[in-house]
Amino acid sequence: MTNVLIVDDHPITRTGLSAILQTQPSYHVCGEGGTVKEAVALFDRLRPDVTLLDLKLPDGHGVDAIRRIRQIDPAAKILVITTYEGDEDIHQALQAGAKGYLVKGASHTTIFRALRRIEQGATFLPQPANSTLRNRSSENLTPRERQVLSLIVAGKSNREIGELLNIKEVSVKAHVTLILSRLQVSDRTQAVVAALKRGLEHL
User: Fold this and answer.
1) What is the dihedral of CA 182, 183, 184, 190, to 10 degrees?
2) Is 188 exposed, middle or buried (0-12, 13-18, 19+ CB in 10 A)?
3) Which of 19, 29, 131, 175 has the maximum number of C-beta atoms within 10 A of its C-beta?
4) What pLDDT was estimated at residue 58?
5) Beta carbons within 10 angstroms of residue 76's beta carbon
6) C-alpha closest to that of 194 among 96, 102, 91, 88
7) In sequence order, which residues have a C-beta less than 8 Å from that of residue 26 and are 6 or more positions away?
8) CA angle 190–192–196, rounded 5-degree value
């Protein structure tokens, strides 16, 4: 019997995943949670064989939950099931220690295939996610550039960004220029679209 912990902020999604798992007698849902805090506490208490985890949680990013769970048990087996399809989301989740990554809408067959591979100690990354990750840009943003990009996505002007980060407007303009270059776009609007698509920022 494989004990599975389900973490998703939507009760309907948790119910759906639970119903799918119950079609196979070898799987047992040992717990359900909807936040990063609950994910960590439930994992620590229940020690499931596999954790199904969404990345979009109300009190933080699922990657935070992955890191904290792996601190409790470095061998924890975590399968991400989320709506996030960006290359940065996939990269961050796998780097944090997730063993598999599925986008919601995956077939029941795919979910069980992923679970079996992860149970066996392997990793699971379907072709679309694998292709997205393979095409990931090698140009990484610096922490300051990530701050500036986040404020661009929030609709702030260069002047406002400078005031919020306590830096000169000319410095903000330099950061923006580098951000556009790294994202391979030509203006701020395209930068916002690229950031959301890749998972660098979320609304």
Assistant:
1) -140
2) middle
3) 175
4) 94
5) 20
6) 88
7) 1, 2
8) 120
The pTM score is 0.75
User: Which residues are within 8 A (CB) of 194 and not within 5 positions of it... i.e. 6 or more apart?
Assistant: 183, 184, 185, 200
Q: pLDDT digit string (tens) for 31-83?
A: 999 999 999 999 999 999 999 999 999 999 999 999 999 999 999 999 999 98
**In contact, 98 and 62? CB cutoff 8 Å:** no
SS (H, E, C) the chain: CEEEEEECCCHHHHHHHHHHHCCCCCEEEEEEECCHHHHHHHHHHHCCCEEEECCEECCEEHHHHHHHHHHHCCCCCEEEEECCCCHHHHHHHHHHCCCEEEECCCCHHHHHHHHHHHHCCCCECCHHHHHHHHCCCCCCCCHHHHHHHHHHHCCCCHHHHHHHHCCCHHHHHHHHHHHHHHHCCCCHHHHHHHHHHHCCCCC
Phi-psi region of 155 (alpha: psi -120 to 50; beta: other; left: phi over 0): left
Q: What is the pLDDT of residues 131-176, one digit of tens each?
A: 777 766 656 788 898 899 999 999 999 999 999 999 999 999 988 9
